[in-house]
């Protein structure tokens, strides 16, 4: 089924409510990636030609999150980029996070336990208070497990007091307006709500974080503007800005991202949020449950996933519950299908 939403067209089937697992790309992104693959298949691929889509997507991610493009690094996954941040945490640091936080956010920090780094879990509604007394706080703006959203105000106060604030926006960027230029690190994988091919991720960074970060995966692509003229021999030559942390890009992924991210950045994201949250809350209301104000909802009903699957709804099992995710290409017919299956 082809759906039109916010000026783009999508091949999204009825009942697809699994964007929190894998997003469905707009047709324009699919055409761009297919054209790039055709070039590759016929000997037409030219490596320098992929610099433009990398920079286009980088600038759009910056616009979506409130950074300058020069403050954004690219990578293949959120956890790989957060590994650079975790390495910059001092020995013995106290890192606080939310209970049941997604492991791609916490594992890079927990892996430094051998040097005394302690990662402590607290309830989400207590995170702000805990952050004020910690060296680092790391949390997803929207929780993967069930769509709960973090209160950013106390985290901003903690940042002003010296706490290093690290936010994962993988489940938020693309449907929720974000203005996070005050945050030390903002990371996102692109293959969910940002509707990119899997293999592209971005990390926005603050100047104070970059003073601590080492380019552990230093490579030829991180050489910035001189990458094509100085790819052999020493000494180490890296970009002076956040591009020094770039991983060598997966080309086709950034070709797709160069279509979807600028489009998303051009939208009225308040309207996108209203659309997505409206569908999610309408589903909860139809089931006699209170609104949550998130595009992701989680149902605590043992038979839900089986009944939804039988009705042609694509959902996900997470933490013993059934997770539904409503993006901009979903509509009221998806709500009706869920309610018909579960009533």
From TrEMBL:
Pfam families the record matches: Aminotran_5
Origin: domain of life: Bacteria
InterPro entries, alphabetized: Aminotrans_V_dom (IPR000192), PyrdxlP-dep_Trfase (IPR015424), PyrdxlP-dep_Trfase_major (IPR015421), PyrdxlP-dep_Trfase_small (IPR015422)
Record's keyword annotation contains Ribosomal protein: no
GO molecular function, one term: lyase activity
SUPFAM superfamilies: PLP-dependent transferases (SSF53383)
Lyase in keyword set: yes
Keywords of the record: Lyase
Residues in Aminotransferase class V domain copies: 54-287
PANTHER family xref list: CYSTEINE DESULFURASE, PYRIDOXAL PHOSPHATE (PLP)-DEPENDENT ASPARTATE AMINOTRANSFERASE SUPERFAMILY
Protein name: Selenocysteine lyase/cysteine desulfurase
Originating organism: Lapillicoccus jejuensis
């Amino acid at each position: 089924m082809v759906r039109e939403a916010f000026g783009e067209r999508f091949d999204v089937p009825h009942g697809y409510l699994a964007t929190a697992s894998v997003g469905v790309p707009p047709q324009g992104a699919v055409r761009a990636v297919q054209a790039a693959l055709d070039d590759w298949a016929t000997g037409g691929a030219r490596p320098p030609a992929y610099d433009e889509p990398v920079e286009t997507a980088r600038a759009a991610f910056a616009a979506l999150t409130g950074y300058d493009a020069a403050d954004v690094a690219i990578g293949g996954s959120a956890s790989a980029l957060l590994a650079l941040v975790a390495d910059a945490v001092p020995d013995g640091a106290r890192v606080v996070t939310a209970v049941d936080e997604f492991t791609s956010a916490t594992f890079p920090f927990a892996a430094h336990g051998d040097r005394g780094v302690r990662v402590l879990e607290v309830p989400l509604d207590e995170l702000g208070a805990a952050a004020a007394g910690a060296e680092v706080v790391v949390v997803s703006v929207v929780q993967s497990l069930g769509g709960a959203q973090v209160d950013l105000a106390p985290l901003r106060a903690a940042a002003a007091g010296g706490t290093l604030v690290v936010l994962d926006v993988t489940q938020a960027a693309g449907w929720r307006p974000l203005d996070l230029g005050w945050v030390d690190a903002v990371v996102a994988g692109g293959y969910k709500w940002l509707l990119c091919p899997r293999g592209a991720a971005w990390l926005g960074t603050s100047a104070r974080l970059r003073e601590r970060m080492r380019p552990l995966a230093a490579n030829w692509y991180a050489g910035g503007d001189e990458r094509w003229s100085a790819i052999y021999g020493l000494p180490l030559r890296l970009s002076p800005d956040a591009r020094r942390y770039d991983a060598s890009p997966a080309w086709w992924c950034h070709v797709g991202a160069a279509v979807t991210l600028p489009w998303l950045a051009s939208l009225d994201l308040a309207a996108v949020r209203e659309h997505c949250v409206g569908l999610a809350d309408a589903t909860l209301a139809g089931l006699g449950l209170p609104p949550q104000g998130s595009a992701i909802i989680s149902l605590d009903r043992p038979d839900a996933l089986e009944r939804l699957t039988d009705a042609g709804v694509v959902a996900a099992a997470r933490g013993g519950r059934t997770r539904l995710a409503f993006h901009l290409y979903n509509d009221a017919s998806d709500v009706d299908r869920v309610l018909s299956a579960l009533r």
